[in-house]
Specification:
single chain; alpha/beta; Dihydrodipicolinate Reductase, domain 2; 9-stranded mixed beta sheet; 6-stranded parallel beta sheet; 2 domains; 355 residues
């Protein structure tokens, strides 16, 4: 697995002033960003932009951002305020133009997932950002959950021996309303990237190929593709399977999915909650082995955690130090590639190599 560069080319923000950010897209997700941003030291939100400026004004009032400017044109806002960073909370189809507008004015971007609405757009965004020498990362907030860090650390330590298999189930009947109800490939494009990215984190491996079946079940309130099953072959001989639904009522999993992680020495079970457990081979003398059951060690203080807050703090740190963030776009595009390969497989009915 190729890690992102350790340092970035972007201009460092000096420690004697706040990192200045402009939020674009003041819909539902922006509230979580702004709540989290308020907890980050050394950060100031100086502008709020939305196609409907009333939405920007409402967020300004809600979060007491009395000094922030509001507007409906991102380019004009950036020219007026000269921020260090754009918070991109627009819909996926707008991420491409948002990033290019920011990079064109010498400003970095921290964007909502998915990185882009198409893989070619994602690659072009990355190229333009790198050529402009600008910070570019994605809010992949579930990476910064302390419990997934516990699972990742245990796997990476060799506690399971050689990793062979990851299975993840995601079943949540989510009644969002709005744009998701009409989205094509709504589960794969809107939500599955969290689980796919988590599989990369836990395993330390990258995707090679995928076979995916997608359908819209009876009773679904979505127009397209609320259910999917996918089988990924990963580097290192690991197989990752995903079963998911946005329209399964009852007995829902957590938003982090329900995991079984299998290695040559045993298995880790994690339901997305606070108590991941291991079942490790103690002795094999007959038909079935005997096992030692235990909760995984606690999170390491050195691990990056904190969800949205942690990722925004990491962006601020990156802009000050130049150290590349874990969710740099150039690395996160590998998770996005899993999404689009799964969609291609679902549309063609064939196994697809992951770009």
């Amino acid at each position: 697995m190729t890690a992102p560069a350790k340092t970035g080319p972007w201009t460092r923000v000096p420690a004697d002033r706040p990192v200045r950010a402009v939020m674009v897209g003041c819909g539902g997700m922006s509230a979580e960003w702004l709540r989290s941003a308020a907890q980050v030291e050394g950060l100031e939100v100086v502008g709020l932009v939305d196609l409907y400026e009333d939405a920007a004004r409402a967020r300004k009032a809600e979060f007491g951002l009395t000094q922030a400017r509001t507007g409906s044109d991102l380019g004009q806002m950036l020219a007026a305020m000269s921020p260090d960073l754009v918070f991109d909370c627009t819909v996926p189809e707008a991420h491409f133009q948002t990033a290019l507008t920011a990079f064109g004015q010498g400003i970095g971007v921290l964007g909502e997932k998915p990185l882009a609405d198409t893989l070619p757009n994602a690659h072009q965004m990355i190229q333009v950002g790198q050529e402009a020498g600008q910070f570019h990362a994605v809010i992949q907030n579930r990476r910064f959950d302390p419990n997934i860090r516990r699972v990742e650390r245990f796997v990476r330590s060799g506690g399971l021996g050689d990793l062979t298999t990851l299975n993840a189930d995601f079943y949540v009947g989510a009644h969002f309303g709005g744009f998701r109800d009409a989205m094509e490939h709504v589960l794969l494009l809107d939500m599955a990237i969290h689980t796919f990215d988590a599989a990369r984190l836990i395993s330390g491996q990258d995707p090679v190929s995928v076979y995916c079946h997608e359908w819209n079940p009876e009773g679904s309130w979505y127009a397209h593709g609320a259910n999917a099953v996918a089988i990924f072959e990963m580097t290192g001989g690991v197989v990752f399977t995903y079963r998911g639904s946005w329209a399964a009522e009852g007995a829902r999993t957590t938003w982090e999915s329900d995991w079984r992680v299998v290695g040559t020495k045993g298995t880790v079970l994690w339901d997305g909650g606070d108590h991941p457990t291991s079942s490790l081979v103690r002795e094999t003398t007959g038909l079935l082995s005997e096992f030692t059951e235990a909760e995984l060690p606690p999170a390491d203080p050195a691990d990056q955690t904190g969800g949205h807050r942690g990722l925004i703090q990491a962006a601020v740190n990156s802009l000050r130090t130049g150290e590349a963030p874990e969710t740099a776009a150039a690395d996160n595009v590998r998770s996005l590639a899993m999404v689009f390969a799964a969609i291609e497989s679902a549309e063609t009915g064939r196994k697809v190599l992951v770009d």
